[in-house]
Each structure stands twice: as structure tokens, then as C-alpha cells.
Amino acid sequence: MIEALLQKVNQPLAIEHQLACSNTAVVGGTDAHVLAQVRRALDGIALGELPTDSEFTWQRLNILWESYAEAETGGRERVLDETQRLLARLRQEVRAHKSSIQNGASKALPLPFEPATFEPAPHEAVTETSEEPMEPMEPMEPAYVAPPEPQFPPSELDSELTYLKGIGPKRAALLAKLGLHTVRDLLYYFPARYEDRRLAKTIEELVPGERDSVLVTVLYPPQSQKMGGRMGGRSLTRVRVGDETGRLDLQWWNQAFREKQFQPGMQLFVYGKISEFNGFLQIDSPDFEIMSDPNSEAQAESAALQVGRIVPVYPATEGLLQTALRRALFLALDKYADLIEEPIPPEVLSRHNLRPVDWSMRQIHFPDSWENK
User: Fold this and answer.
1) Which helix (H) or strand (E) holds 299?
2) CA distance 216 to 288
3) Considering the chain, what is the average pLDDT of its residues?
4) How far apart are the first and last CA of the chain?
């Protein structure tokens, strides 16, 4: 399995380099293709299907390719070079793992003969030797024993994640793949990066290649169609939206259920990477919030986490959406942040004008400004 994943990661790299790091070596984006393979590998490690020795290297690849789309050409070239180096390391780790397994197996094989026993030859006399009495040894200092780690009393922070609203067994299983089992685990699961979604542009201000927010209205009912040729019969769902300055297509691959989400007249706050096809602007797989019903409490809360602010982006796993992670973190902070143990004494906080841990935790996940993140 791991050799197949390595091959899939490596396949588009040379083509991507020839295409001037345009993120187009694979339909849907070279970064999306590589990240899909990397996350399969991390899932395999979490499930015990792949050796854990290589987890750090796969995590490094994941971090590299999460920022690929936003990097300039020079930065993308460095990502490609670093990827080749990490792939070489992974191949070496695979060989070392196989070798250790083979060596372990060979040591366990039964010997083809009985081990020899040795006795003194008849002509060899065994003589006793006299030894002078040893001088008494000086008493040794007792070995250093580390003090036990401080034990905190049981806390609500150690509650299972299913105690949080909106996290059932299925979502808890996905979070477990990331090593998240308790509320404490979740609170200390920090963002990999942030996206600035505070200001919305008009459609005429959008620039292909950039990531931006835009406030639009759904113009027509969504349509899905099967694409032929190199698209391999995949389904494409497209939603035409617009504002007073222009038109824009939102589109998703193999997600026909999107047809039921949109109706003409809906207002959407959309965020994503802008692209252009045949002179028409489009966004593939955008983040969006339906803004038509500002009086809906649930909708307003969800929108407040996804748009109109600096938004955290977390390392995720297949099947776990960023929106679900953000909502889980928001609920955990709201209910449990005040229970986090303060590791710094109050006098030190005061002397150095430091913020308490609960404030810091909230700013790490949902910063008020770039300076606070």
C-alpha cells in the first residue's frame, strides 16, 4: 500500500514542474491530489495499517502541500524539491522497516542442528585458584529518582468528545484518527494556518489565482452533468451566482447533493480560490454560508465562525470538514476554556504583563486580529 501511495504522490511532480508550478498537473489541482494521498497514508498509520516510523515525514508533506496553492512560483518550486527529498526519505524508511521485519523473522527460525556443548578435555586439570580478599567498597550514592509528575484531579476537560453538542459516535471516530479523544485534546489541537475572510469583494474585483471572499446571490437553480473525456465520467455540479458587478460559477465534483442546498434568490457569503475558464470566473469547492435568514440563530452562529473574520484552518482527515472542526472548537472553548489549568503563577503573569491561558487559547483558535493569532 505504501509503495502505491509514494508512486501516486511522485507521478505528477515532474509534469507540475514543466507546467511552471501552475497547480494544474492533475485535474482538480496538484495540491488536492497530493494531499489526498498524504491523508490516506496518515489514516493508515492511525489505523495501524502502515508503520508509525514514517508519520513525521508524512505530516511534513501534509504541511508543505496545504500551503502550496497560496505560495508564489519560487515557493512552489521549493515545495516540489522538498517533496522529492521527503519521498526519498520515505522510501529509505520503508526499506529499513522491511529489513527489520526480515531480520526479526530470521532470528526466530529454528536451528538446523543441536547446539554443541563443551566439557573440559580429560587431560586438562581443573585447578582452583586462590584469590586475595577484596577490599570493602565505598558506599555508593543512591541513584537519582525523578519526582513524580504532578497529577491534576479529574477534570471536565478529560470528558469524551461525545459530551460536546454535535459530536456523535461517527464524528468522534473521525476525530480519533487525529488523536483527539477528550475535550482537552481538542482544545490543544491548534490551527495549521489562518485565512483572512474579514472583507468581501465584488465580483469585478476578484483576481484569478487569489483567495477571496465575495457576497453573492444565487441566480439559477443548480445543475449537475457528467463530464466526459479525461474527466472520466465524473459529475460536476455548478451554481451560477452574481452581484451588481458580474457573474460567477461555484462548482463541485461528484457532489450532486449540492443541488438541494441552493435556490434562486439565496444570499451567500463565499470564500475560495478564484480561477478562470473560457473568460468566466469560477471557484472550485468553495467554503460558503447561506446568509438569507439573518434571524436564524443557528445560521448566524455558523456564519460567524466561517466568514467575516480571521478563520482557523486545521490539519484534518478525510470525511471531517473544516466547518465541523471549527464548530466543535467554538463549543469547547465556550464551555470549557475557563477550566484550563493556568501553568504560570499569577505574580509572574502580572510582572510580565502576560495574558491568562484561557484568553490565549481563545485567540489561538479564533483571533481578533493578525497580531493575536
Assistant:
1) helix 297-306
2) 10
3) 81
4) 39
